[in-house]
Amino acid sequence: MKYNYYMSAELLNEFKTETLGECLIKGGVIAFPTDTVFGLACIYDDEEAIERIRRIKGRDKDKPLPMMCNGKTMLKKAAYTNADIERLIDRFTPGALTLILNKKDTVEDYVTNGFKTIGIRIPDHQDILGLITWLKRPILVTSCNISKEPSIREYKDIISGFADKVDMIVCQNAQSRLASTIIDVTGDLKIIREGIIKEDELKEVYYAGSKAI
């Protein structure tokens, strides 16, 4: 049974893993606080839910939704890594770092809008990590705001702007107003968006292997 997309969102005073997980499995879209800004999430392989998030945000189709994984093992099932990339993962995750990687065939093309790359983050948020572990698969999470508008931290702003658009809202504030740093590591490290983690820190770790004797 699919959720009624036009119902008022169910408001949760706490992060209820099974409740949220069952909603996602049924094709629902949820809004919850993350270790950065407030997030808008669906299960990673539900094409209809992915399209729904795009409509909610007004997001361009050339901007696929980022994936959240619960650790390096799950990430490596979805995308290719190497020693340089794994140094970044080991040093900065869980945390506010989104890595753009070459995706594996285990991730269907509709998840990335046909792109051969995918953005993946391992959040520093135990409730979200627990949800992904409960689901046994990744989720897609983007900031819960209209595209090109400021990110949101306060759950009351989410209720006023998105209660008629999503199925569930976790009524707790996000931990920051600053989004994750996004880097492309499909070639040399390239900063796409600088956030909490700074470029100098990333380059020092990423290029450490080239300095080894």
Break the fold down into its secondary structure elements and pairings:
Elements: E1 10-12, H1 17-25, E2 30-33, E3 38-43, H2 47-57, E4 67-68, H3 72-78, H4 83-92, E5 97-102, E6 117-121, H5 126-135, E7 139-143, H6 155-162, E8 168-170, E9 181-184, E10 190-193, H7 199-206
Parallel strand pairs: 1-8, 2-8, 4-6, 5-9
Antiparallel strand pairs: 2-3, 3-7, 4-7, 5-6, 9-10
Helix pairs in contact: 1-5
Give an account of the 3D structure:
30% of the residues lie in helices and 20% in strands. The protein has a 10-stranded mixed β-sheet. It has helices at residues 17-25, 47-57, 72-78, 83-92, 126-135, 155-162, 199-206, and strands at residues 10-12, 30-33, 38-43, 67-68, 97-102, 117-121, 139-143, 168-170, 181-184, 190-193. It starts with 9 loop residues before the first strand and ends in a 7-residue tail after the last helix. The chain has 7 helices and 10 strands. With 213 residues, the protein is of the alpha/beta class.
Overview in brief:
This protein is α/β, with parallel strands linked by helices and 213 residues long. 30% of the residues lie in helices and 20% in strands.
Q: What descriptive keywords fit this protein?
A:
213 residues; alpha/beta; ten-stranded mixed β-sheet; 7 helices; 20% strand; disordered N terminus
Shape from CA axes?
A: globular
Task: Sketch the topology as an H/E string, one letter per element.
Answer: EHEEHEHHEEHEHEEEH
Number of strands: 10
> Which sheet architecture does the biggest sheet show?
10 strands, mixed
Q: Would you tell me the overall average pLDDT? A: 93
Beta-strand share of residues: 15-25%
Overall structural class, as computed from helix and strand content, comes to: alpha/beta
- The number of helical segments is 7
Report how far apart the termini are. Answer: 59 Å
- Give start-end ranges of low-pLDDT stretches: 1-6
This entry's quaternary arrangement is: single chain
Instruction: Report helical residue fraction.
Output: 25-40%
| Gyration radius, rounded | 17 Å
The strand line-up of the biggest sheet is 1-8-2-3-7-4-6-5-9-10
